[in-house]
Write a structure and sequence with these properties.
By secondary structure, the chain is an all-beta fold. It folds into 2 domains: about 180 residues, YVTN repeat-like/Quinoprotein amine dehydrogenase (Methylamine Dehydrogenase, Chain H, 7 Propeller), CATH 2.130.10; about 60 residues, no CATH class. It is about 0% helix and about 55% strand. Strands 3-4-5-6 form a 4-stranded antiparallel β-sheet, with no helix packed on it. A 4-stranded antiparallel β-sheet has the order 7-8-9-10, with no helix packed on it. A hairpin with a 4-residue loop joins β13 and β14. It is globular, with a radius of gyration of 23 Å.
Length: about 250
């Protein structure tokens, strides 16, 4: 992990390993992840001074992954997301750590929690992202839960903040605390079909398919539109396309 001034000067190395860093409200400390996991997750949360000194491990989680450590506005708490694989899939929850006492507490458990949207607002609300339920599960939106900073407990009912299509990531608050800035990604997976000959692939075309469920496509291209199909992927010889790569079965 490195630091550099936007006013100029040479970059300074702060840590041999580290990512997903969050600076304390007074600018004196940095909390970050170590122990590589999926994407920007890790298995350890570390704390150091802003100059890289006095590094110490706060939390280790070898049974799963940790994500997005963030500071409370008073600098007394660290919130982060834990995620482990259970018998029915992933089991994510938000946990907070009291830096003075070293105590931890789970504050929110929800199967649809996203690892990429956690932030503590200046008014004490904890901002987090939830994936939408099917059939809109390729989207997520922000919610906010009020917290009592004296106890670290969630109070009241969480409130939905945004509504839209695509995944929300990277929330930031403007300096005056009045506006939320974030990224929204709308991934689109495409299927391409090509015939193979002795000279290599040719006649590449976009199949025009998109997912509607984990096992179903909705045709928007060469297949009949407005019909749902389930596809069975079968191996084929690269020198022939006669047997076809996919066998559609009309579902609706």
């Amino acid at each position: 992990m490195w630091a550099f001034s936007i006013l100029g000067g040479s970059p300074r190395q702060l840590s041999d390993e580290g990512w997903s860093a969050s600076v304390s409200p007074d600018g004196s400390q940095i909390v970050f992840l170590k122990g590589a996991g999926f994407a920007e997750t890790g298995q350890e949360i570390w704390l150091m001074r802003a100059n890289g000194a006095d590094q110490r491990k706060l939390i280790s989680f070898s049974d799963g992954r940790l994500a997005t450590p963030v500071w409370s506005p008073d600098g007394r708490w660290i919130a982060y997301l834990r995620n482990k694989l259970g018998p029915d899939g992933e089991e994510p929850w938000i946990e907070i750590l009291n830096l003075e006492q070293g105590t931890k507490r789970a504050v929110l458990s929800e199967p649809r929690l996203s690892a990429w949207g956690l932030m503590w607002l200046s008014d004490g609300r904890l901002l987090y992202a939830l994936y939408e339920p099917p059939p809109s599960h390729n989207s997520s939106n922000f919610w906010a839960a009020s917290t009592d900073l004296s106890t670290g407990r969630v109070v009241g009912t969480p409130v939905r903040i945004t509504s839209g299509d695509g995944f929300v990531v990277g929330p930031r608050i403007t300096a005056d605390g009045k506006h939320l800035v974030f990224n929204r990604a709308r991934p689109q997976a495409d299927v391409y079909v090509s015939e193979f000959s002795a000279n290599g692939p040719d006649s590449v075309r976009r199949a025009g398919l998109r997912w509607t469920t984990p096992t179903t496509f909705l045709s928007t291209g060469p297949l009949t539109t407005k019909q749902c199909y389930s596809f069975l992927i079968e191996p084929v010889r690269l020198t022939s396309f006669d047997k076809g790569l996919m066998k559609p079965q009309q579902k609706c």
